[in-house]
Specification:
The chain has 94 residues and is an all-beta fold. It is built from no helices and 9 strands.
């Protein structure tokens, strides 16, 4: 199974964001109430590998149409600022 790519991240303050691209190896999405990027955090310097392209490792949003057994089945996702946090903009409730 291929993990979906994070095709864009518009949350610039994230430590893993460089030029709208996420450089974490994998991210986790969701908590029971919101499709937020649990991997988001700020730091005084950027982290992750500049060569890495992030993928969705896990998704806790069981009500998302792209979620099967807590694995994202979308071809790719976008992350952006929504509701005051870094959220999965691809999240789509059933």
């Amino acid at each position: 199974m291929e993990m979906p790519a994070v095709t864009e991240c518009a949350v610039e303050p994230c430590a893993y964001n460089r030029e709208h691209a996420c450089h974490a190896l994998a991210i986790t999405i969701g908590d029971p109430q919101q499709a937020q990027c649990d991997t988001f955090f700020t730091a005084p310097r950027k982290g992750g590998s500049p060569e890495a392209a992030a993928h969705v490792g896990a998704c806790k949003m069981s009500d998302c149409r792209h979620n099967t057994d807590f694995e994202c089945q979308a071809t790719g996702i976008s992350v952006g600022a929504l509701h005051g946090t870094a959220d999965c903009l691809t999240y789509s409730p059933r």
